[in-house]
Design goal:
The structure is a homodimer of 76-residue chains.
Chain A lengths: L1 E4 L6 H12 L4 E14 L4 H16 L5 E4 L6
Antiparallel strand pairs in A: 1-2, 1-3
Chain lengths: 76, 76
């Protein structure tokens, strides 16, 4: 599951990375920093797993006001 | 670019997420937390872009002793 700051939302970590990379001589035009959460769970099928992770996002893992979420389901 | 704690390396953020999700009633067997860095840069081709990001990882973005890196190149 990937959590990114939404477009237009301030991303201080991304700005720090951008500045540091430029200082080191890397010509990046933009950097944004988000979170990656790998979850292992038992689920009957991929759709059930996705729905479960969506509930986890709503309750704990992401703030829908400022973050967008991308869920990828990989069967074991 | 995705940065994950290597297997066997302590991941306090992942442990906190795991504990909180279980407390909320989600039956997760494991959670690991890493970083996601989206970078925009000019490069002549995907291989050049990947090599550039590998250099950024070595110099700033990841600690190879405790983190593994996955680089994905998406042409604009």
């Amino acid at each position: 599951m990937l959590v990114r700051p939404k477009a237009g939302i301030l991303d201080p970590q991304g700005e720090a990375v951008e500045t540091s990379l430029r200082t080191l001589g890397f010509p990046v035009s933009r950097a944004r920093v988000g979170r990656l959460v790998d979850l292992e769970l038992d689920a009957t099928d991929p759709a059930a797993a996705r729905a479960e992770v969506e509930r986890m996002c709503a309750e704990l893992l992401a703030n829908p006001l400022i973050e967008s979420v991308e869920i990828e389901v990989a069967p074991e």
